[in-house]
Amino acid sequence: MVLFLLSISDDMKKLTTFILKHRIAVIVITIILTLISAWELRKIEINSDVTTYLPADDPSVKLFNDISQEYSSSWTAVLILESLEVFTKENLEEISLLSQELQRLEGIDYVVSLTNILDIRTDEFGFEIGRLIDEYELPSTNEELEQLKQYVLGQKLYKHLVSEDSKHTLIVCQISADYDKNSIAREIKDLVKNFDISQKVYFEGIPFQVLSIMDFIVQDLLLLTPLIIIVILIMLYIGFRSFKWVVLPLVTVGIGITWMMALMSFSGIALTPISDALPVVLFAVGSAYGIHVVNAIRLNVPGKENTREALINAVKDISLAVILAGVTTFAGFLSFVFSSYLTIIRDFGIFAAAGVLIILVLSITFIPAWASFFKKFPGKTSESELPELITNPFRNLIIKRPGIILTLSIILSIAAFTGIPKIERKVDILEYFKPSSSLRQSSNIMNKSFGGSLPVMIRISGDVFDPSTLLLANEAATFLESIDGLSNSRSLAEYIMRLNEAMGEGKQIPDSREKIQNLWFMLEGEEMMQQMVNYEMDEVVVYASMKNMDARSMHDIYDKIEYYVKQYPGKMQATGMQAIYSKLGDSMMNNLLQSMLLAFIFVFTTMIFLIGSVKGAIAGFSTLFFSMLMVFGLMGYTGIALDIATLLIAGITIGIGIDYSIHFTTAYKRFISQGATYEEAVSKTLATSGKAIVINVVTIIAGFLVLLFANLIPLQQFGILFSVSMLCAGISALTLLPVLIKIFRVNNKPKKNS
Amino acid sequence: MKKNLVLSSLILVFIMIHGVTMGQKDAMQILQNVDNMLNAPKDQSLTVVTYIVDRRGNESTRELTMLQKGSDKRIVKFLAPADQKGIGFLSLPGDNLTLYMPAYRKTRKVGGHVKNTKFAGTDYTYEDMEAKRYTERYDPELIETNNDNWVLELIPKDGIRTDYTKLHMTIRRSDNYPVKIAYFDKAGVMVKTLESSNIQKTGEYWLARQTKMTDLKTKTSTKMEITNVKFDIGINDDVFTERYLMR
Predict the structure, then answer these.
(1) Considering CB atoms only, which of A125, A505, A526 is closest to B109?
(2) CA of B6, closest CA in chain A: separation in Å?
């Protein structure tokens, strides 16, 4: 083991010597590659289409996509029109005109609104199948309007179109399956903006959510990236008090991120609301490697006669720790690749890992090459004393009162542990937007006045003309409607029953196949029917709307529907947001546990390699375990839920948090091997690596707190959680770790063979 | 000077009015000829096969017979596919439409709202199917003349309920047959086209054996092929009754 580590050290010496010999080439190649990457960046795409984040081979997702494709049903853009009273002549005119204007947009298949919806009316002479409202003679007198209002509010078919208090009505636009959702959502918004309308318009539905996320990704990138650069600049300047030392690690990370994003663009992977945090994450995480290298150079080179030799030795000394720190972080990110249900998490893992690797390589090649051109090495004179304000009390505590550290850690761990069962899961995309956002407002209206807007579907296989199929569809619709949180069930059965009533045989499914065929003749070709039955006429889809609710309630609904559907094997299949969100929730838990386990294994193995003893690895690992407990406890007690962003916390905490233990342990071992006692080694480690750890923890926390300014809530919460976990990892590496090292007697005696 | 100006203005106005009336008169004459040509037969009996192509390119076929007397009495019965066999429509003057459903053995009056809905899954609306004289519904204007055709712009007369704001009708000069009609919506956008082809003379009358209605927005189309036609066979008025519809 020691030989292996020594060989890395030797190799590093050779590598650094080689780099310094060819330093111009290293710098020129880096610059050329950066220019090429920057040029590639212009092609980077943004994918804000939330439905593409789910794995396409999941049965529920597949069925959802199949139904969406075949029945073009899930891509609806909804306009909510709000006024004191929908049923006025002016409002109806507006709705009519706006519906017609929308219908003309290229990407819209058809529009359903109060003024063009299909209506079946029966009277003593016969029936009318046509439009609810005559577009050429809109009702205008109070009497006509009141009559219409009473009729509409009394019909089940229109419950999804007009609210019970008749203050809201919807215009539902069916988007062409092959049309770009972002473009059509923008076109609709532009059209409404230029349309002279007195009613207040809210935008609802996946196309608008996709558009908002798209805008947020761009906004976040443009705001957060410069912000993190400024924050890190300030933090580093406070730590190093030298512009030269500050710029080196920062430029290195900047170059690394440019390469990584170019790689993303080159591989055709688009930016998502998760990966748009990559620059922030990599700036916060990756700057550490540069900082450690720069710190080593800063502490060892000034004043030395042979600057080049000193530089080589400084890089050699630190590179082992930096490489191990980088490799563990790399492993932490990689843990998402093997365990993710969500493609966006997987992509995030791949490119974060790639970014770490690139920055790591640059830190031990590009930084020494550049630093070797420095004529003057600003020495310790300009060094900040601030970190010592933290490390000094720690030193006293470790050496004089180790019991306090241990007891406090145990108490905090137990307290945090009790919070874990309280952790909630958030799966609804809506929750990712701020409560004040217009999307949340429109969803509130949908939940309150229209029974929600999330689609729930049951597909029933069977000859559509066979009365038993429609009876089943009607039964399924009634069942869906009986579930709390679901409403507005609709299917072909409802239309057929109304027509049967019009034929004078009561509101029920006709008793013969021929009758259904006759009635279908009236409905065939109606655009709305495309959503209800397939072309082959051997499938019907029953729809219902679901309210936005917490993950647990959604899971209950999912279970109920699955139980119901299973009673008709081969005949019924269910899908919808209840299924997708439930699976997403389950997978998030699995994902968290898997990534945590994988990260533990990766990192633990690395630790054993580094320390050369299982006991030492356990000691180093305890600090991580402590940090993880703290984070989960915090999630449980503060209500910060597990979601697509916060589930990244485990893998990243392990991958990055271990760095502090690594830096501490390597420095400690170095001092022990030089003959220092435990107390001396701890003091010296705190004075050197300890300082770098403090600077790094503060930098990384400040960096991640930048995410508080993100538009999407999960990113904000991720920023908070991660800051807390880094704080815990840093403090425990500087306090708990030395105490545990003593308890486990890890390398606390000088070894002859080292 | 002032006198001259007034005089020349008057002349100009006269020329303009005259020109317009001349144009309108010509256009009206052309449309009148179209109406006369289309409505020349006293009665007709047709067998029609329709091919409906939906937006995904799926084609479905149906067959129907139609008996028509004059321009406002019409009875339609579906022959195929089997699940629609026997379904019938009776259209009488005064927006009077009756539907017969054989499975129920019942007729039902169908209301006027139905006009802009599609007829039996085709790209024709009930309005498109109406056998009405163009001159009664539209004011024509001649907008193009070339060697083969006239193109008329038809604007609905006041009080006429229609989904369209104008029609562009291309009329073959040789026989007054309307070979193409383009339908424009309220925004002035062309939304549908009706093309007639295989125009043959059967007996004394010209008839397009094939017509194709294309919906430019939904990208669907309906082709109608007349497989059998008889003119002036002396259809009895009794045919245009509910009793006959139910037979």
Answers:
(1) A125
(2) 44
Q: What is the DSSP string of A397-456?
A: HHHH-HHHHHHHHHHHHHHHHHHGGG--B---GGGGS-TTSHHHHHHHHHHHHHS--EEE
Residue labelled with tokens 């010592």: A388
Grade residue B182 by pLDDT with cuts at 50, 70 and 90.
very high
- Interchain contact A504–B (C-beta under 8 A): yes
A1-42+241-380 shares its CATH topology with A384-422+612-754: yes
**What is B26-245's CATH number?**
2.50.20.10
Contact check, Cβ <8 Å, B83/A119: no
Which residues 324-383 of A have a C-beta within 8 angstroms of B?
Answer: none
B121 touches chain A (CB under 8 A): yes
Query: Quick check: A178 contacting B, CB < 8 Å?
Result: no
Q: Which CATH architecture has domain A1-42+241-380?
A: Up-down Bundle (1.20)
**CATH superfamily name and code, A384-422+612-754:** Multidrug efflux transporter AcrB transmembrane domain (1.20.1640.10)
pLDDT at B131: 59
The ranges of chain A with pLDDT < 50 are: 1-3, 381-382, 750-754
Q: Is the peptide bond before B81 cis (omega within 30 degrees of 0)?
A: yes
Residue whose C-alpha is closest to residue A285's, from A221, A335, A232, A334: A232
- Given an 8 Å threshold on Cβ–Cβ distance, is A521 in contact with B218? no
- Mean pLDDT score of chain B: 82
**CA A459 distance to own-chain centroid:** 30
Q: Is the pTM of this model over 0.80?
A: no
Element (H, E) at B47: strand B43-53
Q: In chain B, positions 20-79, which contact chain A (CB-CB < 8 Å)?
A: 52, 54, 56, 58, 78
* B88 dihedral zone (left: phi>0; alpha: psi -120 to 50; beta): beta
B105 in contact with A, Cβ within 8 Å: no
